[in-house]
Amino acid sequence: NAGVTQTPKFQVLKTGQSMTLQCAQDMNHEYMSWYRQDPGMGLRLIHYSVGAGITDQGEVPNGYNVSRSTTEDFPLRLLSAAPSQTSVYFCASSSQGFYYEQYFGPGTRLTVT
Amino acid sequence: EDQVTQSPEALRLQEGESSSLNCSYTVSGLRGLFWYRQDPGKGPEFLFTLYSAGEEKEKERLKATLTKKESFLHITAPKPEDSATYLCAVQAAAELTGANNLFFGTGTRLTVIP
């Protein structure tokens, strides 16, 4: 049981490039979410999903897209990277919802130059 | 404005020296308060959920308590392996359902010196 996995672990992008951060979980959790963590700020929710085919915006969705075609996978797409998107990104999953125990992945450290 | 504040930002303890971390909140109706542990370079790991004032939860050397304005994470006789950043998150009541009412604090970085 691998839990929540994220790839890549590190990524450097140039401004304007696009990329996809991958997230997968093998716990059959319906709820999945993406957060970003910046120095001096708490974790902030980007997008979330309550099941396959259902996604919605969180607190800071601008510049990011998501889709959920399967229960296991929840990729996060950066459409046109900007330096303000330099951050550490965490994917999380939960069996009961965001207001219960969440399992977090190891994170992706993204730098946009 | 809904807000979660953790103090202190950083705490250094000698091994065996007990202390407490604080999470104070000002939210519109508390639905739940969560504590997570985060090791450097890793994702947060769930510790506790508290739902109502007076509630307490324990796990090994950690004990979380909740009042109407704040939560404390008490660490008894800490060991070096307890060194980590401890995050607090608060779920507030919201007029509209959704996931935008979960607020994380910035954490307390705990270092336990052997």
How far the N terminus sits from the C terminus of chain A, by CA atoms, comes to 36 Å
What's the helix-strand series of chain B?
A: EEEEEEEEEEE
Judging from the principal axes of the Cα atoms, what is the shape of chain A?
Answer: globular
Tally of helical segments of chain B: 0
Number of helices of chain A: 0
The separation of the N and C termini of chain B measures 41 Å
Secondary-structure element pattern of chain A, one letter each? EEEEEEEEEEE
Give the averaged pLDDT of chain A, no decimals: 94
Tally the beta strands of chain A: 11
Structural class estimated from helices and strands of chain B:
mainly beta
Q: What is the count of β-strands of chain B?
A: 11
The SS-based structural class of chain A is mainly beta
Which percent range fits the helix content of chain A? under 10%
How many whole angstroms does the radius of gyration of chain B measure?
14 Å
- As a percent range, the share of strand residues of chain A is over 45%
What is this structure, in a nutshell?
The complex is a heterodimer of chains A (113) and B (114). Chain A has 113 residues and is an all-beta fold.
Explain what the structure shows.
The complex is a heterodimer of chains A (113) and B (114). Chain A has 113 residues and is an all-beta fold. Chain A is 0% helix and 49% strand. In chain A, a hairpin with a 6-residue loop joins β4 and β5 (44-51). By secondary structure, chain B is mainly β. Helix content of chain B is 0%, strand content 58%. Chain B is built from no helices and 11 strands. Chain B has strands at residues 3-7, 10-14, 19-26, 30-38, 45-50, 56-59, 62-66, 70-75, 84-92, 102-104, 108-113. In chain B, strands 2, 4, 5, 9, 10 and 11 form a 6-stranded mixed sheet that branches. In chain B, strands 1-3-8-7-6 form a 5-stranded antiparallel sheet, with no helix packed on it. In chain B, a hairpin with a 6-residue loop joins β4 (30-38) and β5. Chain A binds chain B through residues 4, 33, 40-45, 48, 56, 58-59, 90, 92, 98-107, and chain B through 4, 31-32, 36, 41-46, 49, 87, 89, 91, 98-100, 102-107.
